Amino acid sequence: MSTPNRVYLARLAGVAVFDPNGDQVGRVRDAVARLRPAEASPEVVGLVAEMPMRRRIFLSLNRITSIDVDAVVLGSGTLNLRRFEKRPNELLVLQELLDRRVQLDPGGQAGTVVDVAMEHHRSDEWFLTRVAVREQTGRLSRRGHLHQVEWEKVRGLTGIADARGTANLLAVLADMRPADLANALQDLPDGRRNEVAAALDDERLADVLSELPERDQVEILAALDRERAADVLEEMDPDDAADLLNELPPPEQDVLLDLMRPGEADPVRQLLKYTPGTAGSVMTSEPVVLPPDATVAEALARIREPQLSPAVAAQVFVTRPPLATPTGRYLGMVHFQALLREPPADLLGGVVVNDIDPLRPATGLPEIIRRMATYDLVAMPVIDQNNRLVGAVTVDDVLDHSLPRDWRDRDAPATTGPVLDGTHG
């Protein structure tokens, strides 16, 4: 194995995994160690890699030909695609050890685990041998000294952990997409998951909540104090916030909506009024809306805004003022590809198209799917009886509400490919 004899595992988090042909097959998310008796250093038996569609599988170390901070390379042969499940005598190194509060021997100096190293022995086995521990100073303005000590000289690495921080685990998870971070949170015990979620900033937590199963969303929100929960709901897209609030009892909905700023709560309240399974219940109330006298250049600048999702940014809806939903009279829409073909100084009123009938708030999901498929659209306008734009249904809204309710749940049954040779451990 062309690999350093010592590898610090937090540095491997997120590293790409390649097959022998050089094709990327996933990314490293953790390492699996087997506990041994009498406080002996655990044996590292493999890595956990995340594959497409959020599937996490086990990679035995004897199938890996190279490990470094740039890439993990697999040897020849096929993979076991069965979803990874930790066994009772195993330890997920990053998940369970980072931020753990421990004591150093001799002297009992308290500290926090920031990384763990594995080393390659002559027997061709790998063991957890060294732990990077930062001293606790008791002073917020000063970071404690960082020690790199042998596994046997650290107390508290196994057994039930005391309450602990989240800084080092968050550092490992920092570069993940919201969907991948949501997937990682589902691997954590409930208490640890809630601690890590609460440590995210409001915007990041809002993005992650939108990618979690409803059950986990509700449990994380309930673990926050109500003012913080309201702040997070304000950062969510109104349709996602409405979906989450729909999972709560009406009295709790009212409390949280009252704590939100009126400008953020009002569109959510409106979405909660619509019947589930209709255009009104699945639409976003914040599409891109511009007046007919806006220029093509202004429209292109608007859809470049980074906070817009690809589906929302794919078209501009043109209405009379006011431009906030419910708008003035709906005039039509312009797809971004049409904008790219027009002179920048031209007005939207001259390129708008309105040859497809908009949806009504009461239009059912099957009809929405049929019409979007018929016209190859990624979004459709929703107008009220007064011809005012009240929102837009996007293809991601349709997918979210067409898939089974538990499709984001890691524990939900799923159709998988064949299980090939190789076993966990």
UniProtKB/TrEMBL annotation:
<keyword id="KW-0129">CBS domain</keyword>
<dbReference type="Pfam" id="PF03448">
    <property type="entry name" value="MgtE_N"/>
</dbReference>
<dbReference type="InterPro" id="IPR038076">
    <property type="entry name" value="MgtE_N_sf"/>
</dbReference>
<dbReference type="InterPro" id="IPR046342">
    <property type="entry name" value="CBS_dom_sf"/>
</dbReference>
<protein>
    <submittedName>
        <fullName>Mg/Co/Ni transporter MgtE (Contains CBS domain)</fullName>
    </submittedName>
</protein>
<feature type="domain" description="CBS">
    <location>
        <begin position="283"/>
        <end position="351"/>
    </location>
</feature>
<dbReference type="InterPro" id="IPR058838">
    <property type="entry name" value="SH3_actinomycetes"/>
</dbReference>
<dbReference type="InterPro" id="IPR011033">
    <property type="entry name" value="PRC_barrel-like_sf"/>
</dbReference>
<dbReference type="GO" id="GO:0016020">
    <property type="term" value="C:membrane"/>
</dbReference>
<dbReference type="InterPro" id="IPR006668">
    <property type="entry name" value="Mg_transptr_MgtE_intracell_dom"/>
</dbReference>
<dbReference type="InterPro" id="IPR000644">
    <property type="entry name" value="CBS_dom"/>
</dbReference>
<dbReference type="Pfam" id="PF26205">
    <property type="entry name" value="SH3_actinomycetes"/>
</dbReference>
<feature type="region of interest" description="Disordered">
    <location>
        <begin position="404"/>
        <end position="425"/>
    </location>
</feature>
<dbReference type="InterPro" id="IPR006669">
    <property type="entry name" value="MgtE_transporter"/>
</dbReference>
<dbReference type="Pfam" id="PF00571">
    <property type="entry name" value="CBS"/>
</dbReference>
<feature type="domain" description="CBS">
    <location>
        <begin position="352"/>
        <end position="410"/>
    </location>
</feature>
<dbReference type="GO" id="GO:0015095">
    <property type="term" value="F:magnesium ion transmembrane transporter activity"/>
</dbReference>
